[in-house]
Amino acid sequence: GQQLNQSPQSMFIQEGEDVSMNCTSSSIFNTWLWYKQDPGEGPVLLIALYKAGELTSNGRLTAQFGITRKDSFLNISASIPSDVGIYFCAGPNKISSGSARQLTFGSGTQLTVLP
Amino acid sequence: DGGITQSPKYLFRKEGQNVTLSCEQNLNHDAMYWYRQDPGQGLRLIYYSQIVNDFQKGDIAEGYSVSREKKESFPLTVTSAQKNPTAFYLCASRSGPSYNEQFFGPGTRLTVL
């Protein structure tokens, strides 16, 4: 099946630094989704990307849909302590039939922000 | 407020017992999903349902069962046949066939003693 390779697996950064993480696939995706999961909670959708080359911002977060449609990037500027959590990329699974629109998830990037 | 609720937040059960996890949504979403998350890992799909009275197995359906008798509700039963049931369980929903975004509930942490 389709796989999403997310990197890095974990990051330790100082408060105020910028962060960059990415997600790659051997298959083409027509949608990229970025989620954040706080400890013990469900993932929350941060940004949805629908068009190759698209650059979308949500506050200090910016995500890009790679031009090859096989990758996506998430950047966080001026990190703060509440940015701590796991960030997942996801995309619709082409194997799923009809309108089921199953998602394939990356394995996540664990972000730790040091004061 | 519209959203997805899961209950309980924490659940403890003895080995060999079946247990049912609740998932309710008032978003009027058609599709609903159950995922399992183990420590340090991503999300794995257990079951999904596109419409009422219809559901399909995901990647790791063995030892689980579901029902979809109402649009708002998609309960998951973890049976005694599930070898390693201790995990964090997440329910999600999606609004309609034109959308890919799934929205998640707060999760239920199941511990089998």
How are the SSEs placed, and which strands pair?
The complex is a heterodimer of chains A (115) and B (113).
Chain A: E1 4-7, E2 10-14, E3 19-25, E4 32-37, E5 44-49, E6 55-58, E7 61-65, E8 71-76, E9 85-92, E10 103-105, E11 109-114
Parallel strand pairs in A: 2-11
Antiparallel strand pairs in A: 1-3, 3-8, 4-5, 4-9, 6-7, 7-8, 9-10, 9-11
Chain B: E1 4-7, E2 10-13, E3 19-25, E4 31-37, E5 43-49, E6 56-57, E7 64-66, E8 76-78, E9 87-94, E10 103-104, E11 108-112
Parallel strand pairs in B: 2-11
Antiparallel strand pairs in B: 1-3, 3-8, 4-5, 4-9, 5-6, 7-8, 9-10, 9-11
Chain pair with largest interface: A-B, 24 and 28 residues
Structural class of chain A: mainly beta
Q: Find the count of extended strands of chain B (DSSP E, 2+ residues).
A: 11
Distance between the termini of chain A: 40 Å
List keywords for this structure.
heterodimer; A: 115 residues; mainly beta; five-stranded antiparallel sheet; 11 strands; B: 113 residues; four-stranded antiparallel sheet
Summarize the structure.
The complex is a heterodimer of chains A (115) and B (113). Chain A is mostly beta strands.
Can you tell me about this structure?
The complex is a heterodimer of chains A (115) and B (113). Chain A is mostly beta strands. Helices cover 0% and strands 52% of the residues of chain A. In chain B, strands 2, 4, 5, 6, 9, 10 and 11 form a 7-stranded mixed sheet that branches. Chain B is mainly beta. Chain B is globular and about 40 Å long. Classes of the chains: A mainly beta (115), B mainly beta (113). At the A-B interface, strand 5 and strand 9 of A face strand 5, strand 9 and strand 10 of B.
